[in-house]
Specification:
The protein is α+β, with helices and mostly antiparallel strands and 94 residues long. It has four helices and two strands. It has a domain of 59 residues.
Length: 94
């Protein structure tokens, strides 16, 4: 993943003069920090679910849970921030 300014530079190099690139931070109020794992399971971890067998995927999720909670601690409630880079671009009319 690139920083937003780099996406703008890449789009410019590709000929997209009319463009908009921004970082959007979404806040989610969760019951606990452990709920981050369930939230991420349906987004960031989806590609892993597609290629791993169910048992291996569940092992991945449990290891992720362990490492994540060691990093962010256990809190109730928990405010989870999720960042997305949003971009659109248009080539100039010929």
């Amino acid at each position: 993943m690139l920083a937003p300014p780099r996406y703008a530079e890449v789009l410019d190099r590709l000929g997209f003069a009319d463009q908009h690139v921004r970082l959007q931070v979404y806040g989610h109020h969760l019951a606990s920090s452990a709920d981050v794992v369930e939230w991420v399971r349906g987004s960031t971890l989806s590609p892993y679910r597609a290629v791993l067998d169910p048992a291996t995927f569940e092992l991945l999720v449990e290891r992720y849970r362990s490492r994540l909670l060691a990093e962010i601690g256990e809190e109730r409630p928990y405010f989870f921030t999720f960042s997305r880079i949003l971009a659109w671009a248009r080539r100039p009319a010929p």
